[in-house]
Design brief:
alpha+beta; globular
Length: 116
């Protein structure tokens, strides 16, 4: 049973906004599809491979229901992983000096933060 036209219209509007935002923030990536949970595809009466917008096809994936993902040929999140690795390495190679005097109290000694 196909979903009502109001739901499909709302989905298409949200997908168009998502694609536009992605393309604006990532002009060197080519958006080719939208990933959606299999449950949502069935519930909406859609089919995998269906073209939602010109050049944007629907692909089923194991994502969360009620959400969709913009699929493109670019790499996302690589810089964040590299930065996190660098921080971990920098922290792991530094030794923390013990405080000369740690006041005793209900919370114990104060926490010493490593320099960044």
């Amino acid at each position: 049973m196909p979903a009502d036209t109001a739901r499909i219209a709302k989905l298409l509007k949200l997908v168009a906004q998502g694609v536009a935002a992605h393309d604006r923030e990532n002009p060197d990536h080519h958006t080719w599809g939208v990933g959606m949970a299999w449950f949502d595809i069935e519930r909406l009466g859609l089919e995998e491979g269906e073209e939602l917008l010109p050049g944007i096809v629907l692909q089923g994936d194991g994502g969360m229901t009620g959400q969709f993902r913009i699929l493109c040929d670019g790499q996302h999140g690589e810089g964040a992983e590299e930065a996190e690795e660098e921080i971990i390495q920098a922290v792991s190679t530094q030794e923390l000096a013990e405080p000369a005097h740690a006041p005793a109290g209900p919370g114990g000694p104060p926490r010493v933060e490593p320099p960044l």
